[in-house]
Amino acid sequence: MTGPDEERTAAEAGVVAERPSDAGGSAAREAEMFQGGRRRRGGEQTVVPEAEIESYYGRPVLKPPVWEWKIAAYLFCGGLAAGSSVVAAGADLTGRAALRRSARLGSLGGLLASLYFLVTDLGRPARFHHMLRVLKPTSPMSVGTWLLSAYGPGAGAAAVAELVPRRWRRTWPARLLQRLARPAGLGAAATAPGVASYTAVLLSHTAVPAWNEVRDELPFVFAGSAAASGGGLGMVTAPVAEAGGARGFAAAGAATELLASRIMEHRLGLVGEVYRTGHVARLRRASEVLTAAGLVGTLTVARRGRAGAAASGLALLAGSALQRFGVFEAGVESTKDPRYVVIPQRG
């Protein structure tokens, strides 16, 4: 038999005996807390399942982009036009007439295609015109609209000069156009880097996680992709003897694209899952393989014959297109999972 005093003394002794283990048990309690375990006042432990982030009161955390595949095609064609303008300017300054002609026509074709895809996706052509009412340096869309407006006339004039029939070249309008072709082409080449990269800035300034998280690297990926496609087109369409500048430009662009893309994926956190899984990963893997193959071919077989040059150029063009589609699809996929929005903000 023990009295109340003895029971109280034993209880106090038990409390004192447990205190030395408190320090060692704190880590366990913290682990329980992070694993979802909670302890009630009476010491009873309950296991709370890890929260699943599915929606915000039944609604998506982010609204998926309303853009269709035409925007991805617009991204590729705009980059192709910009890269071709740089190749055309270099060919013009070095006296490579065949490469100059093919690159100028390629820049015009890429420009018209990109504008078609953009306007048809917007739904109303007037929306592009309305963007010209004001210039907002802080708005990538506004700056991009003005860049296209400055780039287009020069690229168009230089390309049209190549299309003038021989029998008309002695007329005064044709002679005037021929004189304007070089400054117009050089002007287009001067704005081409902005045309090639502004779309990356535009995408990364949205709330879409897969685009916003790569804002530092995406402009380099797009610029390299534009150079690879522009040089690749020159390799496909120009004689091997005149395509040396196109080969060098394509190789530099492909190397930049591959390196920047790897750095981009390496620095991504949770949202990197989007780029490394599913159909997005397949698109980007195919892009990487084609671009790498095109780069190797450009440095080896492209200078030996037309077949090797054409195959390498086509690989670079396909790799560039898949790069744009992969980035576009990654953005769309990242809006479907609220984890990519909520968890990074919890820090």
From TrEMBL:
<keyword id="KW-0812">Transmembrane</keyword>
<dbReference type="Pfam" id="PF03916">
    <property type="entry name" value="NrfD"/>
</dbReference>
<comment type="similarity">
    <text>Belongs to the NrfD family.</text>
</comment>
<feature type="transmembrane region" description="Helical">
    <location>
        <begin position="185"/>
        <end position="208"/>
    </location>
</feature>
<feature type="transmembrane region" description="Helical">
    <location>
        <begin position="220"/>
        <end position="241"/>
    </location>
</feature>
<keyword id="KW-1003">Cell membrane</keyword>
<protein>
    <submittedName>
        <fullName>Formate-dependent nitrite reductase, membrane component NrfD</fullName>
    </submittedName>
</protein>
<feature type="transmembrane region" description="Helical">
    <location>
        <begin position="105"/>
        <end position="123"/>
    </location>
</feature>
<dbReference type="GO" id="GO:0005886">
    <property type="term" value="C:plasma membrane"/>
</dbReference>
<feature type="compositionally biased region" description="Basic and acidic residues">
    <location>
        <begin position="1"/>
        <end position="10"/>
    </location>
</feature>
<feature type="transmembrane region" description="Helical">
    <location>
        <begin position="143"/>
        <end position="164"/>
    </location>
</feature>
<feature type="transmembrane region" description="Helical">
    <location>
        <begin position="71"/>
        <end position="93"/>
    </location>
</feature>
<dbReference type="InterPro" id="IPR052049">
    <property type="entry name" value="Electron_transfer_protein"/>
</dbReference>
<feature type="region of interest" description="Disordered">
    <location>
        <begin position="1"/>
        <end position="45"/>
    </location>
</feature>
<keyword id="KW-1133">Transmembrane helix</keyword>
<dbReference type="InterPro" id="IPR005614">
    <property type="entry name" value="NrfD-like"/>
</dbReference>
<keyword id="KW-0472">Membrane</keyword>
